[in-house]
């Protein structure tokens, strides 16, 4: 077996290996600090105890990560990214705003919002603990990182490690270091030509992969936030419907109570959807975004070693050309070559392992997320089915309540539409709306026609239309047996007179007295009565809205029809009769 094969087998720890197990058994939040209880069980001889229990803070986790990053021995490995700093400021700020706005909401809404924020705080706390535990697990499961002395001190030493939060100068130094690493990446990528196509392809693909992960993380966070906003809106809708149900003791009471209970349960489902999406998808994307950044740092370190190796080759050529310090230049060139080859072999193995690890992690995370989404969808389906009417009485009451609600909505919409039409129409008496044309055609079909030439009895009793005062042929007959011109009575009934009465005797015109088809005269049951009531109410509301809108624009046009009839009568009297 070759030396390289032995090294590759040594870097992989079997999944069934229990020689070093690290977990966080407990955590305690104290204002801005979180104390983690790290529990270690081991059978390795390098540890003094087989079981250790220590308390660590976030700054000590950062201290351990920096020790690995500063050690040149680990230059060829992907160092696990440090866990993010615990951030509970957002949850505390929301709780503070909720306390300030307590007077603007009911007690039930306040309690529900408080429960939501407490659940969000608990989810953030659990997520923080999980991130710190993953960092330690990665170190303990690596065949090289697990033997580091700093890790042993971190797991065994039961005293404080004197790791303090970074000050402003240290934070500024970290920013400068990050900028220097980014500059090295672009500078070395432009000046150093990599002879190995594998690493060049890895640099391009990981850089692109990191950008996609960053964008996906941002969008997933926005989606999760929208799910939380939907859950919060369900609280307000449920509370409002419950108040309305308590006020109204009529048939809508049961209907509104059911709808309120549905939104309350749907809120819990929506909250769980947001939490699962945050834990299973957003956290996975965010972790591997940082892990891909660590892989890029590994490739940058390799490029730096390649640049040092090329510099050592140029220094050796100059030394040979000058015939001076040749042995020192050869030693430096040999050390640079060995370092470059060593980091290249380790980096290739780490990059392949990184690809396999992230594929397994995303596969597991997405499968679990899909199973949870299906579970929540089924729960929501069962919730909707449970709110549907189960017997005839529930069906009848729910149907009546639905018809009442639909009637109210249609009435409001019809009144608004009528108002807008009346307000926007400049000449309301010459409207070309399809509704008016339909009414004209309906009235023309309903009213019976009479020919004056074939009906001498009517000609003897009256010889002119009472609307236009002219001879009529043909005519239309109302239920009161008064005859009018076709166009005159149609215009009168559909445009001028909203009360729909006879122009002569003022008798109300009822469509039920007009000739109808036998099929139309049949009863259609309670549903037909409800629909007819809704339509009549909507038409009345539309008419009222139309009049209000018309009178708000042209209040002087309400008596145009009366003035027109008066002028027609005067002209008729002045005209000699043949």
TrEMBL record:
GO terms for molecular function: phosphatidylinositol binding; zinc ion binding. Residues 562-578 have a biased composition (Basic residues). Residues 14-161 form the PX domain. The keyword Membrane applies. GO terms for cellular component: endosome. Belongs to the sorting nexin family. This is Uncharacterized protein. It comes from Aquatica leii.
């Amino acid at each position: 077996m070759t030396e390289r094969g032995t090294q590759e087998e040594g870097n992989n720890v079997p999944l069934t290996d229990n020689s070093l197990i690290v977990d966080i058994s407990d955590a305690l939040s104290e204002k801005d600090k979180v104390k983690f209880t790290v529990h270690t069980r081991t059978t390795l001889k390098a540890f003094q105890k087989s079981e250790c229990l220590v308390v660590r803070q976030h700054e000590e986790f950062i201290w351990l990560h920096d020790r690995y990053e500063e050690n040149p021995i680990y230059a060829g490995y992907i160092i696990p990214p440090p866990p993010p700093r615990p951030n509970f400021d957002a949850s505390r700020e929301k709780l503070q705003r909720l306390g300030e706005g307590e007077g603007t909401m009911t007690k039930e809404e306040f309690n529900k919002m408080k429960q939501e924020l407490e659940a969000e705080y608990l989810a953030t706390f659990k997520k923080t603990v999980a991130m710190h535990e993953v960092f330690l697990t990665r170190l303990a499961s690596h065949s090289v990182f697990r033997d580091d002395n700093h890790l042993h001190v971190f797991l065994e030493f039961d005293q404080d490690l004197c790791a303090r939060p970074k000050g402003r100068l240290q934070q500024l130094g970290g920013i400068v270091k990050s900028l220097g690493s980014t500059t090295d990446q672009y500078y070395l990528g432009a000046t150093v030509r990599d002879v190995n196509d594998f690493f060049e392809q890895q640099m391009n693909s990981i850089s692109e992969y990191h950008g996609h992960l960053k964008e996906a993380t941002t969008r997933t966070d926005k989606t999760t936030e929208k799910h939380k906003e939907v859950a919060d809106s369900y609280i307000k809708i449920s509370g409002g419907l419950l108040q309305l149900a308590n006020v109204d003791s009529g048939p809508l009471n049961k209907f509104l109570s059911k709808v309120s209970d549905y939104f309350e349960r749907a809120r819990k489902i929506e909250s769980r959807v947001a939490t699962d999406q945050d834990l299973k998808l957003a956290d996975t994307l965010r972790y591997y975004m940082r892990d891909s950044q660590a892989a890029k740092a590994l490739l940058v370190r390799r490029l730096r070693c390649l640049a040092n190796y090329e510099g050592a080759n140029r220094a050796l050529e100059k030394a040979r050309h000058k015939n001076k310090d040749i042995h020192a230049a050869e030693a430096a060139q040999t050390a640079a070559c060995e370092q470059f080859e060593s980091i290249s072999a380790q980096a290739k193995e780490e990059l392949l392992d990184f690809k396999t690890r992230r594929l397994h992690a995303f596969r597991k995370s997405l499968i679990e997320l899909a199973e949870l989404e299906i579970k929540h969808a089924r729960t929501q389906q069962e919730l909707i089915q449970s709110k549907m009417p189960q017997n005839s009485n529930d069906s009848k009451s729910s149907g009546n309540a639905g018809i009442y609600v639909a009637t109210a909505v249609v009435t409001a919409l019809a009144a608004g539409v009528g108002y807008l039409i009346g307000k926007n129409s400049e000449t309301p008496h010459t409207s070309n709306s399809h509704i008016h044309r339909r009414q004209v055609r309906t009235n023309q079909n309903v009213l019976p026609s009479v020919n004056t030439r074939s009906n001498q009895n009517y000609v003897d009793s009256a010889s002119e239309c009472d609307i236009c005062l002219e001879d009529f042929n043909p005519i239309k007959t109302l239920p009161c047996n008064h005859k009018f011109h076709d166009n005159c009575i149609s215009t009168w009934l559909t445009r001028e007179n909203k009360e729909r009465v006879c122009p002569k005797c003022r008798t109300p015109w009822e469509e039920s007295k007009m000739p109808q088809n036998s099929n139309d005269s049949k009863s259609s049951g309670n549903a037909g009565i409800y629909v007819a009531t809704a339509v009549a109410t909507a038409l009345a509301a539309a008419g009222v809205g139309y009049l209000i809108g018309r009178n708000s624009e042209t209040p002087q046009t309400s008596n145009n029809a009366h003035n027109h009839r008066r002028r027609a009568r005067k002209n008729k009297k002045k005209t000699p009769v043949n």
